[in-house]
Amino acid sequence: MSFSDSVSASMKSGRDFQNRQEKLEKDATMNESDQAKSPKPSSLASVAKSHISRGNSARRLGTGLEAKGIHAWFGSNHVLADISLDFASGSVTALIGPSGCGKSTFIRTLNRMHEFIPTAAMAGEVLLDGKDIYAPGTDVTKIRLKVGMVFQKPNPFPSMTIGENVLSGLRLAQLKVENKDDLVEECLARAGLWSEVKDRLGEYGGALSGGQQQRLCIARSLAVSPHVLLMDEPCSALDPGSTLKIEDTIAELSETMTIIIVTHNMQQAARVSDYTAFFLSDGGPGEMVEYGKTTEIFSNPRDKRTENYVTGRFG
Amino acid sequence: MSETKVSRSVPKPSKPWQPSAAERAQSLSVGVLAALASVGLVALTPMKGVLPTVIFFGIFAVLIGFVKGTFTRGSTTGKNNAIGILLGLGTCVALIPIASILQTTVSRGYKGIHTGLFTEDMSMNTAIDPITEGGLLHALLGSLIMVSIALVIAMPLGILTAIYLTEIKGRFSRPVRFLVQAMSGVPSIVAGLFIMSAIIYPITKSFNGLMGALALSILMIPTIARTAEEVLLLIPNDLREAGVALGGTQWRTVAMVVVPAARSGLITAMILGIARVIGETAPILLVSGGGDAINVNPVEGPMGSLPFYIWKSFFFGTEEATTRGWAGLLVLLVFVLILFTLARTLSRRKVRR
């Protein structure tokens, strides 16, 4: 990693930030003058630009994921009610909403991690390439190979080196690969980490910074070539610079895979996603209030509660 | 840059939170006052000896510390001082027996240490032979062999038990955990009796090192299982979830992620297990036969061990034998000390980063 690279990268991000800041201020003043008019556009509307024009890439893996009527319980506590969402192949979907509205629970039902909590129960169907992942006789480890996951806290395996961490998925699932070195390089490059760690693959994962660890975790998920990548607040523990890098990674990855990202950061949802779903719980189970193209959610939400949330009036 | 070097005055690093010399002298004066008061009290009353002086020193130190704190900064400080002094005294009291054991063992044991100790056995010697003759090599080898075999048996069983308790969390984990805890309280002689009545009398009909090792492994399993359980519980759940989310089965995740992450802690569990049994005399006495000659075959013939050697030496009671006993104790103590130091250093060293 050359010094000038990092400088130009940070300068670029700085400039982006400035532009964004100016836009935000402009929007804010517009908001004030248009206060009587309704609906008020969110200040993030300008950030949310639809990427849907992406062509139908031949590299795309799988045909997407579909959740039908998902309910979830912890014990007798009904935490999620009737979520139906269709995640098209190659799209980025952001799940937003205040804490405790069931976003994380929802994405954990999508790769059958929900069942890890002893009191958990669920209802509904999750169709991966047309097949229900909860159907009896399904091999759950195969499902999790196709639906990868990145967690909120970076969690590289402490007993493995950086290189071993990237290959850990293959070893865990007992898959064979022809050229390990190439795979390590490819995964790390796609996760935007290769230039920073290429000379220190033999070091332990814990030696990296938080942002690097998180990108290592992304690289680790990529090694088993999942069709869908679930990200549960992947940037909540990271600084803005690392966040930016991971967002670049997400943009790159969406060329080939379906990405579902939970985030508390509205700017992030606006920046990275094609579609946005807004979850809310009013004391009862979490529900999906609104779903639509990210541009529409942030500029022209149909629901008053969505508008209040995306404009920062609560949450 | 070097030409326009700005001379900047760097303040001297200090530690203003530490007590000043005057404050330290004051704290010391509390101790001196308490000592004077206790000595004076004992001299003025019919009480005699060291014990009442020490007891009154403690009482006076707590009282004077409390009064001093209360008068200088209020009752909260007074109470704080009193509790602090009490805790310090308590630590000293707890250390007395340990220091005493060490002191006695070293002062009596060093007389029996000679180079022949580690090269000879006792097969040709009797209890009244001079101390420079004979040795405890047979006992040291016997202990090493029996503890090693016990370790080979108990380590996998103990770790698998811990994995069952922390990873599988099956329906039987509550009763298993209860049994493991109860087992760690089982008197060691019961383990010896169990091997004797369950294996020696009905099946093998011979007393040898393997039987001793079996008895020791019974004592070792609960120690290893409990320590390993604690260690595995410390591994963050994130790692398990990450392993499973990558498409690993539970077993692969445990074997590849959880256990390696807990490696240094599991080594500690092993060393604690060894330390638990290395000084055991009762079960060895019952089942290993207790030989005086070097025997490295665990399945045939009696096998000696360090605790047995010590017990036998004291049992004879002659001056030479007693010195041998103390020397054996010293060797055993040093051995255990080395093990514990090893355990501390290994467990303090975190997973390599």
Walk me through what this model shows.
The complex is a heterodimer of chains A (315) and B (353). With 315 residues, chain A is α/β, with parallel strands linked by helices. Chain A has a domain at 90-97 and 139-310: 3-Layer(aba) Sandwich (Rossmann fold), CATH 3.40.50. Chain A has 11 helices and 10 strands. Chain A has helices spanning 3-33, 103-110, 140-146, 162-173, 180-190, 194-197, 210-222, 240-253, 266-272, 294-299, 304-310, and strands spanning 65-74, 77-87, 92-96, 120-128, 131-132, 147-150, 228-232, 258-262, 275-280, 287-293. Chain A has a 6-stranded mixed β-sheet, with helices on both faces. A 4-stranded antiparallel β-sheet of chain A has the order 2-1-4-5, with helices on one face. In chain A, helix 4 (162-173) packs parallel to helix 7. Chain A is globular, with a radius of gyration of 20 Å. Chain B folds into 2 domains: 23-111, no CATH class; 137-348, MetI-like fold, CATH 1.10.3720.10. Chains A and B meet through helix 3, helix 4 and helix 7 of A and helix 8 and helix 9 of B.
